[in-house]
Specification:
Structural class of chain A: mainly alpha
Shape of chain A: globular
CATH architecture of chain B: 2-Layer Sandwich
Strand content of chain A: under 5%
CATH class of chain B: Alpha Beta
CATH architecture of chain A: Up-down Bundle
Low-confidence stretches of chain A: none
Radius of gyration of chain A: 22 Å
Oligomer: heterodimer
Strand order of the largest sheet of chain B: 10-1-11
Radius of gyration of chain B: 24 Å
Helix content of chain B: 10-25%
Chain lengths: 319, 252
């Protein structure tokens, strides 16, 4: 599949934003952090920038971005529609939770803060779940048609959110910083495990469709394309027949694992063991940045490595 | 509404494509482009049509495959036209977030409403057959309409009220009719010839059927292998003339 930059940015950025929201809401529920306005501005601000930036980026790949509102109408059948609807609805609890953090003494906000925190957690996770289901529901792309896709999106969102949370709480010198560094480390380890399982599944996956089943000619023998319908690329080949990454897949996987998981594990581990808070901040900042690069490479591979069954009509033999 | 119709369409208009007859001339694709460039989903935009790398929207494309039998080594070349199969369980319809993509209850035709399509391309990801193409110029998805603007068109003589690809096929490899009616001509042809679904494992339940090539006499003879090559050396002189056999005996 063609890895569209807008979709890669959307899924990684909004994933991190929703992950950060989950951890902020957890902190509010469990009274882990003092409710300071400046922290709220930066933390919720960062989460909203990541989420809204991602959502806007995702509309850039549309042919008609001005009609994007229509995408919320078909929630009964379409995962994409459910995602759009959940993304918009989630702003209500997330926004109210941010307001509570800014004005904790306001009575009404205080009363609903628990419900809003739960609402934020549920809606943030639901939105990421719906995003993952867009991909996991497609039978035509067997690499994605798996629970591993859903688990991967959820774990990686919580992982990148936890790393941001650890950095932010460390910047403010909160007591909770140690706890969030440990949570981040646990989720990076989980993320690495999930990705390794995802790749192991890809390697051991049974064949779904073949050129024989695509043409109905399997009984006549091994089916090979001898002549393409056209002499130049068409939309289908550009969108679904992306090939570059498979050539470098092994190298890119190493880069994704090194930057996205191994380096953050090392940096988080060091940060947890050290006492010096300014060094811890540097380590966590480096972890967030390098981890971000790793996650973008991981997401790029997620698209580029996935084969679509339509390529069976263009020379592929089995998928 | 992008859910599939609650009442399953009784009438299932579709195509039956005879792979035994198709000669791969591309006339169906050309006439499809010609008609539809002015029809329901017009225009079918071409990008750089006279340049080095022309590309554009086509509803029908003709691939050519070769099937080589593993045991006998016999090969067969098959020309393979492919357009939308107007599936009963069309995944392109249910993934659509806007309701632009829909399946008609009255005849099962799958269409796109170009006024509400946002061009997210997800339907083209959901379709196993590559039936949906993105029109870069218009920013919407386009697909075979089964010539919905032809088949009911009372301004056309009755014999022309069939999809453009069917009326133009010079070999008679394409049939159009109601595949939901077991007594229709197309249903009978499918039953008689053992028509097949493409990628049945994808669970789309396509309406269009493909008739596999007929077995030739040579396919029915089990011990028949591929024709010999010029480099082949005979081991025996069976079947040779009297003189050739005598020379063979003398020399070997």
């Amino acid at each position: 599949m063609h890895p569209a930059k807008s979709v890669i940015f959307f899924t990684t950025a909004s994933g991190a934003g929703y992950g950060l929201i989950v951890w902020l809401a957890m902190a509010a529920l469990l009274n882990l952090l003092p409710l300071e306005a400046f922290f709220a501005c930066v933390a919720f601000g960062l989460a909203f920038v990541l989420i809204i930036g991602g959502l806007l980026a995702s509309t850039f790949h549309l042919g008609h971005p001005e009609r994007a509102w229509r995408a919320m109408s078909q929630w009964r059948s379409s995962w994409l529609s459910r995602e759009g609807l959940a993304a918009v609805l989630s702003f209500a609890p997330m926004g109210l939770l941010a307001l509570y953090w800014l004005w904790p003494e306001q009575a009404l906000l205080g009363q609903i803060s628990g419900a809003m925190a739960w609402g934020s957690i549920i809606m943030a996770l639901l939105t990421v779940f719906f995003t993952a289901m867009i991909y996991a529901s497609l039978k035509t792309i067997p690499a994605w048609h798996s629970k591993m896709t859903v688990v991967g999106y959820l774990v990686l969102a919580l992982m990148s959110g936890a790393m941001l949370m650890a950095l932010l709480t460390m910047l403010w010198g909160y007591d909770g910083a140690g706890l969030f560094s440990i949570i981040a480390l646990v989720f990076v380890l989980l993320g690495l495990g999930v990705k390794l399982l995802y790749w192991a599944r890809l390697a051991g996956k049974k064949i779904t469709s073949t050129a024989g089943s695509a043409t109905g000619l399997a009984d006549f023998g091994a089916v090979t394309l001898v002549e393409s319908p056209h002499s130049t690329d068409n939309y289908l080949l550009e969108e679904m027949g992306f090939k570059i990454a498979r050539k470098h897949a092994a190298k890119l996987r190493k880069i994704a694992v090194l930057f996205g998981f191994l380096t953050p594990i090392l940096l988080l581990g060091l940060a947890i063991m050290l006492e010096n808070s300014s060094l811890q901040i540097v380590l966590l900042f480096a972890g967030v940045m390098l981890g971000g690069i790793g996650l973008v490479v991981e997401r790029w591979l997620f698209f580029a490595e996935a084969k679509h069954v339509v390529t069976l009509y263009y020379g592929e033999h089995a998928i | 509404m992008t859910s599939l119709p609650k009442n399953k369409p009784k009438k299932k208009l579709g195509l039956v494509i005879d792979l035994d007859i198709c000669v791969g001339c591309h006339a169906c694709a050309v006439n499809c482009k010609e008609w539809n460039a002015g029809g329901h989903s017009a225009p079918l935009t071409d990008i750089d049509p006279y340049g080095a790398k022309p590309k554009g929207v086509w509803f029908n494309r003709i691939h050519t495959f070769e099937a080589v039998h593993e045991e006998t080594g016999r090969s067969r070349t098959v020309h393979f036209p492919k357009s939308c199969l107007h599936c009963d369980d069309a995944p392109c319809v249910t993934v659509c977030p806007t309701g632009a993509s829909y399946k008609r209850e009255e005849d099962g035709i799958v269409l796109v409403n170009a006024d509400t399509c946002i061009g997210c391309k997800l339907c083209s990801w959901a379709c196993p057959y590559g039936a949906r193409e993105y029109d870069e110029d218009e920013g919407v998805m386009k697909k075979c309409t089964l010539c919905v603007d032809r088949i009911y068109n009372e301004n056309l003589p009755e014999s022309s009220r069939a999809p453009a690809c069917v009326t133009t096929c010079p070999a008679g490899a394409r049939h159009f009719g109601d595949l939901g009616d077991p007594s229709s001509t197309v249903s009978k042809i499918v039953a008689k010839r053992g028509g097949v679904d493409l990628m049945p494992e994808q669970g789309t339940r396509p309406v269009n059927k493909y008739l596999p090539p007929r077995l030739k006499n040579i396919d029915k003879q089990k011990d028949q292998s591929a024709p010999r090559m010029l480099t082949h050396q005979d081991d025996s002189s069976d079947g040779a003339g009297l003189l050739a056999r005598w020379v063979d005996k003398l020399l070997s």
